Amino acid sequence: MASVEELQKIVESYVDLVANGTPEQVADLYADGATVEDPIGAEIRNTRESLIEFYGVIAAMEKVTSELLWTKIAGNTAVFEFTLITETAGMSFKITPVDIMVFDDNGKIKTMRAVWRPEDLQQL
């Protein structure tokens, strides 16, 4: 199992790559067959192609910034909150989800569930 320090670095990489990386780089953090439920209650994505499509929506924005606010890690699970600001077509939006990630023994994300509601999306 990955150490707390290793999982912390993966969380930091995830938050950075969502804003500054490619959809493929974000997908590389996931194990084969991993699931993403973002937000909780949404259709579950469980293929690399669906992850690339999902993160591609963010990558297509004109400007994206992210900031990790806090992280808690226990065993193979990390819970963290981050702020994501996207800008496109002269409009800016901010969301601050809390993500729950479970990792496999190799430090790859097995499951990611994002806790937020549509009304949490703020237009700036």
Q: Would you state the CATH class?
A: Alpha Beta
Structural class call reads: alpha+beta
Residue stretches low in confidence (pLDDT < 50, at least 5 long) are none
At CATH's second level, what is the architecture? Answer: Roll
Which range does the strand content fall in? Answer: 35-45%
Secondary-structure element order, N to C: HHEHEEEEEE
What helical percentage do the residues reach?
25-40%
The largest β sheet comes out as: 7 strands, mixed
Short account of what is shown:
The chain has 124 residues and is α+β, with helices and mostly antiparallel strands. Helix content is 27%, strand content 42%.
In words, what does this structure look like?
The chain is an alpha+beta fold. It has a single domain (4-116), classed as Roll (Nuclear Transport Factor 2, Chain: A). It has helices at 4-20, 23-27, 48-59, and strands at 30-37, 63-74, 77-88, 91-95, 98-103, 109-115, 122-123. β3 (77-88) and β4 (91-95) form a beta hairpin. The longest helix has 17 residues, at 4-20. The mean pLDDT is 97.
